[in-house]
Amino acid sequence: MYLGLDLGTSGLRAILVDEAGIVQGEAEASFDLAHPYPGWSEQDPAAWVTSCETAVAALRRHVPDAFARLRGIGLSGHMHGAILLDAGDRVLRPCILWNDTRSTAEAAALDATPGIREITGNIVFPGFTAPKLAWVRKHEPDLFEKVAKVLLPKDYLRLWLTGEHISDFSDSAGTAWLDVGARDWSDAALEAGGMRRDQMPSLVEGSAPGGTLRPALAEAWGLSQTVTVAGGAGDNAAAACGSGCLGEGTGFASLGTSGVLMAGRDSYSPDPASAVHSFCHAVPDRWYQMGVILAATDSLNWLSRNLGQSPSELARALPDAATGPSALTFLPYLSGERTPHNDSAIRGAFIGLDVSSDRTDLTRAVMEGVAFALRDSLLALKGTGARFDTLLATGGGARSRFWLTTLASVLDLPLSLPKGSELGAAMGAARLAICAADGADPNDVMTAPEAAEIIAPDPALRGAYEDAYQRYRALYPLLSGLG
């Protein structure tokens, strides 16, 4: 049996699978975020340990025989967080999370440092780890002097599980300290942020062993055999492992709180200026790239709050299939935008509001606007050489047929709807555990799910959506000029 642990921003998900990847048990536990000041987002790492204990206890209650045969654990987690430890592995302050924006000035300074984009393959965004430490160095200097190790969220959980300071390449690629092409810490990038190599964890591939379960924990959990803990992955790389997106031509479109268009790559082809993320994959000799928009289903949630109807009620008022673009255009820049604009100050808008516009028109425009924003990401990814044969559709927004058919026609790509529901980051973590514990080939383990349905673009709507997209694209510089 193999345990996949996915540490999310608001909770931990655990699934137990057998060697064929069939789920035998699952459990979840939640925890809170703290926002002590505007733009701050923090969490107590002790809550992650408690959630893991809770989830494991639930699995031991519900599937005791299966859990007793545990051989491997895989880890997935939200990226970019900064856990600061002293020489005794004591946490010095709450973890600064991926969605914390306090280090905007520090990120800009690091991004302007000669050579940093070339080393890391990415723009240095405020959410990345390196600018967080630069902020601590400036604003909490006494605490900064005590920092002996910096860990990413899932790797703090690993420290509790194994007692070791280890990370993987996919997660570490989001720190702005890693040479993403060479798959190693960069001394130059570390020095630019005032850090040292000895403050970093050691690095392994995500599908390789990354420690073993501590004997005390193994005994407490009723395990008699050695349990391997895999290197693991950042959440998007783990989701790619769970959905079989490893190499060229594979990818997924995620309509989650944020929107992600992910492409598997066989080689390293960064383009930082496009605001495309270029990261190491969780398996050897592979990379992945992402276009990221900050408000996908979050745009629908925003509309829901203001109209007093649930997102599902709003979605049900739309037809089952796209019929062509609306005269109303929505720009989903509610929290700024990543790809391709890298603009934290831009804000959203409705263009073309009419006295006859109703909530159905607004809902339709929101879904179309998100689809157009993901087409921005598609073009940015294609500019790096990425290609897509088809896209796996995932995330909560994929429950809307109107949204899926709109997205397929806007992207002019077929969308694959997978059979079954368990193909996310927790499954990817479990698959990494299988590889690490058994030495299995990731290409054999991380297969794509069987398609339940393929949603093809409607060729009759191609021209209309192309015209609407060009109108959408022309609006960004006009909005930007208002600031």
Number of contiguous helices = 18
Straight-line N-to-C gap = 55 Å
CATH class of the largest domain: Alpha Beta
Number of domains: 2
Find the count of extended strands (DSSP E, 2+ residues).
Answer: 24
* Major β-sheet profile: 7 strands, mixed
Instruction: Evaluate the radius of gyration.
Output: 22 Å
| Helix/strand structural class | alpha/beta
Shape: globular
Helix content: 25-40%
What do we call the CATH homologous superfamily of the largest domain?
A: ATPase, nucleotide binding domain
For this structure, the CATH topology of the largest domain is Nucleotidyltransferase, domain 5
The percentage of residues in β strands lies in 15-25%
Low-confidence stretches: none
Mean pLDDT: 94
The CATH level-2 architecture of the largest domain is identified as: 2-Layer Sandwich
Enzyme class: transferase
GO biological process, one term: xylulose catabolic process
Keywords: ATP-binding, Carbohydrate metabolism, Kinase, Nucleotide-binding, Transferase, Xylose metabolism
Family: Belongs to the FGGY kinase family.
